[in-house]
Amino acid sequence: MTVLVATPLGAVGRYVTEALRDRSDVRFLVRSAASAGALDGSVRGEVFRGDAANAADVRRAVVGVDRLFLAHPFAEGQIAAETALGVAAVEAGARRIVKLGARRFGGDLVPDAVTGNHDVIADRLRAAGVEELTVLQPDRFLQNFLPSAPALARGTLADPAGPGARGYVDVRDIAEVAVAELLADRPTGGEIEISGPAALTLAELAASFATALGTPVRYVDVPLDDAWRAGLAERGVAPRIVDGLHDLYANYRREGVAGLGDGVQRVLGRAPRTAGDFAAELLRPTASGTA
């Protein structure tokens, strides 16, 4: 068995990599020399440098691969890159793909590009004839708040998702489900919704962070206006990506209270980590380091 991990230093991939670092039957696909250098010496398996957008690199990357962890950041070329890698793996003999997707919105909301891209890719993988396909569908990542640790330590949680409630999920849980599906003799398979144990408003999430940080944290709603767009543009975010993020956050605001997923319990046999667990174990050390 050979497992190929795409985006091994991504938001979820880095935890998948950590779990598989001591296995010799894992190949880690990286694009840049910097990423290759970050993994060299820290993993037992093969570090393969190649570009998922390059057909020749993809064909070489999937040789002998039996199982694939497929992930890619939201970007203009996401659908093409994930589809090409997944289809090439199937054509090379891979029988199992664990794809990182996103939780669908309830009701009659029109899918945004951030979440809708995943459905397009999954449909193409099914059409390619993959034998065993698992699509992970997590809610919002708690780890996305780590870059805001300095602001949180100063007492502010600013976010544009609005007043609804979501099952904010610790990325470590997503990775553990992914690894379990990759390595299982008989994976759960299908679509697996993953969330935290409770639907929290951003005000409740701020309170959870405040408890861990030992300081008051106030939630501040960020309007999805021109100032918000300009802030992303100043950080170099491409207009089409800004549009996709705008539609994603608009759907968060429209949906209100999101349903919870049972994927962690179903696959791992335990309850998911809480926002408090995340805050105490990861956010507090990060905030302390920036103080």
Please characterize this protein's 3D structure:
- Helix 1 packs across helix 7 (171-183) and helix 4 runs parallel beside helix 5.
- The radius of gyration is 19 Å and the shape is globular.
- The protein has a domain at 3-140 and 167-197 and 259-273: Rossmann fold (3-Layer(aba) Sandwich).
- It contains twelve helices and eleven strands.
- It has helices at 13-20, 33-39, 55-61, 78-91, 113-127, 149-153, 171-183, 202-213, 226-234, 239-255, 263-268, 275-290; strands at residues 3-6, 26-30, 46-49, 67-70, 96-100, 132-138, 156-159, 165-166, 190-194, 200-201, 218-221.
- Helix 4 links the parallel strand 4 and strand 5.
- The protein starts with a strand and ends with a helix.
- The strands form three sheets. A seven-stranded parallel beta sheet has the order 3-2-1-4-5-6-9, sandwiched between helices. It has a two-stranded parallel ribbon with strand order 7-11. A two-stranded antiparallel ribbon has the order 8-10.
- It is α/β, with parallel strands linked by helices and 291 residues long.
Structural descriptors:
seven-stranded parallel β-sheet, Rossmann fold, two-stranded parallel ribbon, 291 residues, alpha/beta
TL;DR?
The protein contains twelve helices and eleven strands. With 291 residues, the chain is an alpha/beta fold. A seven-stranded parallel sheet has the order 3-2-1-4-5-6-9, with helices on both faces. The chain has a two-stranded parallel ribbon with strand order 7-11. The chain has a two-stranded antiparallel ribbon with strand order 8-10.
